[in-house]
Amino acid sequence: MSEDKMPGDTSEPAQRCGRTAKLCHFDGFDMEWSYFTASGRAAASCPTCGVRSRTWDRPEQARRKKLPYDFNDTYDGKVILSERARAYFMAHWPDQMDFRQIFENAWEAEPRRVLTVENPDEVVEYSSQYGSGDGNPCPDCGLCYCQTFKGNLYRFGNAELIAEDGVFRTDISFGHAFRSPLWLAGEKAAMAISVLFREVWLRPFEHQGDGSWEFRLDDPFRADAATGAVEPDYPDFLD
What we know:
It is a single chain. By secondary structure, the protein is of the alpha+beta class. Helices cover 15% and strands 26% of the residues. A 7-stranded mixed beta sheet has the order 7-11-12-1-13-14-10. The chain has a 5-stranded mixed beta sheet with strand order 2-3-4-6-5. A two-stranded antiparallel sheet has the order 8-9. It has helices at 38-44, 83-92, 120-123, 160-164, 187-196, and strands at 23-27, 29-30, 71-73, 79-81, 97-103, 106-111, 114-115, 124-127, 146-149, 153-154, 167-174, 180-186, 201-207, 213-215. The chain has 5 helices and 14 strands.
């Protein structure tokens, strides 16, 4: 699990099944690699607390890295897709993703559409040091070092997007210094991604009677595999 993914997530992968959900969080394989170089981190981070507080003027090319799978996550909150995965997203959701090629067969990606969280004080806990819970911001940049899950009920200000299906991201970022938003998908999109890209796990949101959505962080699953889909060969430490 990468350092800037979902703190406190100790769940083990669920067995493949025929489940579904109207909204899912999804992520890829932790490739144990930092997209940002040391100089890139310094350029984008607050010198006092180390939190990413500025936009990094990325070089034309990133450090080369062989991608383990089609859908990959980095330590510093980036999602890197293969050309095969990029072509799939372009074919099915052409206006919903931004891509930037970083080297051959590797594309930085981010959903364009945003689900806005209306209850951020209930969802995240702000902390100036990991685990401290004191909520004191950095005196220089005004940000807090860690944003972690505090509760599991979300209220989305534009929840009507969910019924349109496709892919989204939250307007709030989670994690430590190089935090990132949650990637989300509607029911059809989530199932389509999961059946083909077997390194992708889904974590469902369940719609509640009061209009909120309960995030089932500890309940990951995958859709049944498509014919010919290749199962990931995980290293021993992920078994």
